[in-house]
Amino acid sequence: MIAAFERDGVEGLADHRPRPSPHPDDQLTLPFLKEVLDRQQEYPRAGRFRLHGLLEQPYGPDLPSESTVGRAMAINRRVHGAPGPWQSARDEQEAALEPRHLPYRPHYRHHLWFGDIRVAADGADRA
Fold it and tell me: Is 101 inside any structural domain?
C-alpha cells in the first residue's frame, strides 16, 4: 500500500481489484442479510431456491443469484441462529429402524461380524 502510494500518489490508494463490480461479496450487504434472515424466520422450511423466489418480488431484477442467497442463509445460520435446513420425517423413521444395540459384546474390532456356514450337515468341513 505504501509502495503504491509512493509510486502513484493518491491514485495508488484507489481500489484496483480485478473482480467485477456486481461481485457476490459486494452483494452481501447488511440490509440484504437482514432481509434474508427475516424471510428465513418467517419460512423456516424454505431452502435457498424458494427463498430466492420469495425475494424476487421486492428486489426485482436487482436480486442477487440463488447461490448468493444460499451464502447469506449460511451466514445467518452461523451468526444469527437462523433455522437450519429442514429434516424430513422419513430420515427420523429410517434412523429408528436401525438396531439400537448389538446382540453380543465384541471384544475387539470386527469380532463376530460373520459366521462360517461351510460346515456340512454331517459336521464335515467342505472348505
Answer: no
Q: What cell numbers appear for 54 in the block?
A: 420469495
- Give the count of domains, the chain: 1
Which domain range does residue 31 map to?
18-87
Residue 72 lies in a domain: yes
Q: Which residues contact 125 (CB under 8 A, 6 or more apart)?
A: 118, 119
Coil/strand/helix, residue 119: strand
Residue with cell 447488511: 30
Q: pLDDT tens across 6-23, in order? A: 888 887 777 666 666 666
Reference 36, options 93, 74, 5; nearest CA is 74
All 3 cell numbers of residue 92?
427420523
Residue 97 confidence class, pLDDT cut points 50, 70, 90? low
How many whole angstroms separate alpha carbon 42 and alpha carbon 28? 20
